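ok posting inputs for the K1U job
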Amino acid sequence: MSVRPILIHPDPRLKKRADTVIQVTDEVRLQAADMLDTMYDAPGIGLAAPQIGVMNRVIVMDCVKKEGEAPRPMVLLNPEVVWSSDETSIYDEGCLSIPEQYGEVERPAVVTVRWMDLDGGAQEETFEELWATCVQHEIDHLNGKLFIDYLKPLRRQMITRKMVKLKREMART
Ligand code: K1U
Ligand code: ZN
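and the output
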């Protein structure tokens, strides 16, 4: 298993809709394992395939943050929100593709998500708190949407300019 490079915004691959996973192949299993390695290495609580330049509908998550609590790595293929609460919550979100930038995003507080697991089976679970925020953030990635798309245009432009500058500096070193 290996840590893969994470794409930094702006990148056209982060704005595209990812393709449905038709079959769970060894390649998909290896991709999922690499995504978990990449997420834990970052460190992050989630990661979507387009962030490593793979344009399929795979996300990984582990929102267990409390010390001493067992990790809960999750791999979700073709995740879709099948129910969302009217109640909303606001979270100061970050993104591994937009390092060190944060912004408040309002989303449904509770969501039920259906997905395919790595054995090809159907799964469904209701997520709340940070898990709910994270799964919606990751599904947005699969649809080419970033958390900055929820912010005011001026703030979004400012963050994008910072990222362009960061990428220029990274290319020089
Ligand atoms: O998709 C991503 O870019 C990963 C992102 C997920 C996310 C964060 C916050 C709200 C919604 C979704 C991250 O993991 S950013 C890093 C982060 O939040 C974190 C890192 C270490 C410990 C705890 C949190
Ligand atoms: Zn993100």
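notes: The longest helix spans residues 153-172. The beta strands are 46-48, 58-61, 74-84, 88-93, 103-108, 110-116, 122-128.
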